[in-house]
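thought: user wants a sequence for this fold. calling inverse folding tool.
action: design(structure=
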């Protein structure tokens, strides 16, 4: 198996793990969930895009972090 195929397989497996996490959260992930998951992995921006595409295909909603959304709403109230 060449390096590209191995990398694609790795991305697929990691994406599967994110899908499983999302299932435990009503098919939703916060951006911070994905950031934590990818934190120690050396994945190119192109591969990260592929992960987001895969999540979209699996009908996983990626939402802003709850804390950030709350702060933005709070700023609007001021």
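)
observation: tool returned 78 residues.
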């Amino acid at each position: 198996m060449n390096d590209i195929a191995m990398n694609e397989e790795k991305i697929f497996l990691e994406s599967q793990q994110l899908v499983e996490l999302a299932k435990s959260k009503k098919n939703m992930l916060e951006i911070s969930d994905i950031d934590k998951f990818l934190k120690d992995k050396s994945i190119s921006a192109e591969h990260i895009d592929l992960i987001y595409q895969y999540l979209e295909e699996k009908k996983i909603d990626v939402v802003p972090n709850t804390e950030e959304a709350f702060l933005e709403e709070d700023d609007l109230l001021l």
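thought: summarizing for user.
answer: Here is the designed sequence. Residues 9 and 15 are 10 Å apart (CA to CA).
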